User: Fold Serine protease from Microvirga thermotolerans.
Amino acid sequence: MNRACLRPVLHLCAALAAIVGVSGGATSVLAQPAPGPAARTPDPAVEAARAAFESLPEADRRTIQEGLIWSGDYSGSADGTFGRQTFDAIAAFQKRAGRPATGVLSPADRAALQAGMKNARSAVGFEIITDARTGVQIGVPAKLLTGQGDNPGGGSRWQSADGRITLDTRVAPADATLATLYERNLAIKTPGRVVTYKVLRPDFFVIAGETPTGKFYSRYAAGPSGIRAFSIGYDKSVAPQVDRLVVAIANAFVPFPTAAPAAAPPPAAAAPAPATVAQGVAAAGAQAPFGTGLLVGPRQVLTGAPMDRCRAARVRDVRVQQVKGGGPYLLELAQDLDYKGAPLAVSQQEMASASVLVLAFGADGDGARLGAMAGTVEDGRTVSAPLQPGASGAPVFDRSGALAGFVGALPSNPRKVAGIVPSAPYPLLPAAEAARAFPGLSASEAKPAALGAADLVAMVRPRAVPIACAP
Assistant:
């Protein structure tokens, strides 16, 4: 199977975290582009671990990664290739077991890892089966999902006794295309539904997200026999147990294990017009921007991104001449941008506890695309949301449309669950502090009515900008 699917995989956006805080710094001038970053010196520990890992047969390497998935330390593809994520997963497993975190598994480590995987799989009755209705190969935790029947959409369904976990397989109608199914899935209108990750490639797409009480993940794959898919949804109350299961299920999914085609259901009705908030399709090789900023003038951008780590920054291909402040930062541009922003409402007090929307750019399309992610402010200085790469420095708005602050620095290498960064706490730089530091930040009265995500994106889109950086 195309294992690239696992990187953008998963609705379970809910279990990652990572590192890095906002660094203060004096005003810096960026009048001239800086040379590119120096080549990194290989980490001897990582290289030693790589050599040990790659000396093993491929089957053993895959088994190790599968064991790390079941231990909860690894969220990538069990493809037998070594990278930093595999090294970190092995080190985390060793550290938790009270062993030196060398990244090199001893025979005792491997035995413990495999015993743990065997026990974990047995506990949930995890079996890799070929689904008779669709022809896909998929992993099913049979002891957890005790109910089995037909998926009304065409395929099979496994469900927990309490209905809090549902796993579906399906075959798309014969006249369906990946593009139409992608738009149809994005257009689903459920109160509070937020798409936190999506990617469309020539042979598959993935859509992942959250609702106020649950998580969801869908993957569709195209092949000579048509389009086959699986999806899983589960209540947030069972996330600690199910998160790692989703990674295992995704790794076990093979849409076309044989050449035998599965019967397709009758053509479905035409899909509704797309109405997604986070718009765009991820292009192969697309990279997320360094961060997200907010235009506060024709040549001025405010952001919470760690600009002290960026030697040469650009906003919409316009060079940043000067950086002021120490977080949030005011970027002075070399020329005017097309600035059409109406005055913003700015929250003058720190928020104690409230739901918010974070507007951020990410590599969700043919370049950087703007999206909205639901989150919560917990103590006035922390925002929790499923922020993906590119959201560093992004503006945060309350539900009335008032600017609440800016996201601080995001982790440079966050741990992911099946390739997705789930909801985690991040530093929040309050808008009131930004207004005091930069009096030019215009303000107006907040609208009394709550704004939906789509309305807020439409309001802020003229002001939001992606920030590119040469470190």
Helices lie at 44-54, 58-70, 84-96, 107-124, 178-186, 239-252, 431-437, 453-460.
